[in-house]
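S., here's the first fold you wanted:
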Amino acid sequence: MSEPSASPEARFHAALVQGRFEVQWCKACARAFFFPRPHCPHCHGADHEWRPSTGVGTLYSHSEIPASSKTPGRNVILVDMDDGSRMMSTLLDACAADLQIGLRVQASIDRLEDKPRVVFRRMTT
């Protein structure tokens, strides 16, 4: 279980800073969950551990956010991770035509304004 003084969100971001993408796994029901939180959303157990994610998943849903005068356009995607969790992020280097449900994607850690974040790219075969 994570240290009592560190929130699950802080623990997740600390791992990203160190170059690790980890997700929580519930010790009671043996399921992964994301976003970081103190209790399992499946069984409500509070005993969990952090495990490295393979970062591989399948595009479940997507949306385009158009550009404005202050921000560039971007996509928002939902990815069903192979480890069983689901996460929201963005698909880099992609146009609207690239966003196909079922697309296999690979996570990586990117830095936006020096803040680490998990982003995705199309998997190459």
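And the second, which I think is the more interesting of the pair:
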Amino acid sequence: MGVMMRQVNMLEAKTALSELVAAALRGEEVVIARANKPVVRLVPVEPVMRARRLGWAAGKVRVAADFDAPVDAFADYR
């Protein structure tokens, strides 16, 4: 069976907003109508991925002092 749909008029939406939000969060499609014509669909908000702040790992990564020194195993490729 598909997603249930509930259509309510503006007055009912005003008086039952908490119930309608709960229904939308459960996955039910909630449509608000004006004069029996659908005008708005109530849907849950998708979580927004926050951008990482630059420098968030500063001081947590250590690089050896000789990390860019030539490697003896690659002497033939110089």
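Why I say that: The CA atoms of residues 62 and 68 lie 14 Å apart. The radius of gyration is 29 Å.

Talk tomorrow,
H.
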